[in-house]
TrEMBL record:
Xref: SUPFAM superfamilies: Fe-S cluster assembly (FSCA) domain-like
Protein name per its UniProtKB record: Phenylacetate-CoA oxygenase subunit PaaJ
Residues covered by the MIP18 family-like domain: 13-83
Source organism (scientific name): Microbispora siamensis
Lineage per the UniProt record: Bacteria, Bacillati, Actinomycetota, Actinomycetes, Streptosporangiales
Pfam families linked to this entry: FeS_assembly_P (PF01883), Zn_ribbon_PaaD (PF23451)
Length: 174
C-alpha cells in the first residue's frame, strides 16, 4: 500500500463527510446520505475520488442539482478531481431511509413512507397493492386519503387527513 493510496483514502473520507452533508434540493430537511442517494465514495490510485449516487426514481429532475452540489462539496473538501457515477441497480427504495430520516420528515410535516415490514400500515385498494396509506404527520391519524399522486415534487404525493383536515406531502413508496 503506497503513499498515493493512503492519501487517497484520507481524501475519500474527507470528501465523503462533505458530500454526505449535501441537502436534497427537493426535501431540504434531509441530506443525500439520509435519503440513501449517496451510495459510496472511493479513492482511485490516480488521486481521483469517485462518488456513487442513485436517484430516488428514474428521471428525477433534481439529479443535475445534486450532481453539481456534490461536485462543489468535493471541491470545497480539497478534492481536485471528482467523478460522479450514477447507478440505477439496485434501484433506490424508501426502505433505505433511516428512522432518523423518517423522524425528520414527520417533524417537517411530510409523511414518511411506511416500511414494507410495518404491520400497522393500511393497504390501499389500488392497482398498486404495495402502496399503503401514511399516517398524518400532524395528528397521527391513519384516516388519510390521497388527493393527487403528483405532489409538490415528483417524488411526493399530496394527501389529506380526514381527522384534522390538513393536507400534507407524502414521500412516495418505491
Amino acid at each position: 500500500m503506497g503513499d498515493t493510496v493512503v492519501r487517497g483514502q484520507a481524501a475519500a473520507e474527507r470528501v465523503r463527510s462533505a458530500v454526505a452533508a449535501v441537502r436534497d434540493p427537493e426535501i431540504r430537511v434531509l441530506t443525500i446520505e439520509e435519503l440513501g442517494i449517496l451510495r459510496d465514495v472511493s479513492a482511485e490510485d490516480d488521486g481521483r475520488v469517485v462518488v456513487t449516487i442513485t436517484p430516488t426514481f428514474l428521471g428525477c429532475p433534481a439529479m443535475d442539482v445534486i450532481r453539481a452540489d456534490v461536485a462543489a462539496a468535493a471541491r470545497d473538501a480539497g478534492c481536485a478531481e471528482v467523478e460522479i457515477v450514477t447507478v440505477l441497480s439496485p434501484p433506490w427504495t424508501t426502505d433505505w431511509l433511516s428512522d432518523a430520516a423518517r423522524a425528520k420528515l414527520a417533524a417537517a410535516g411530510i409523511a414518511p413512507p411506511v416500511r414494507r415490514d410495518d404491520p400497522g400500515g393500511r393497504t390501499l385498494p389500488l392497482l398498486m397493492p404495495a402502496l399503503r396509506a401514511p399516517r398524518c404527520p400532524r395528528c397521527g391519524s391513519a384516516a388519510t386519503a390521497e388527493i393527487a399522486r403528483a405532489g409538490s415534487t415528483a417524488c411526493k404525493a399530496l394527501w389529506r387527513c380526514d381527522a384534522c383536515r390538513q393536507p400534507f406531502d407524502h414521500v412516495k413508496d418505491h
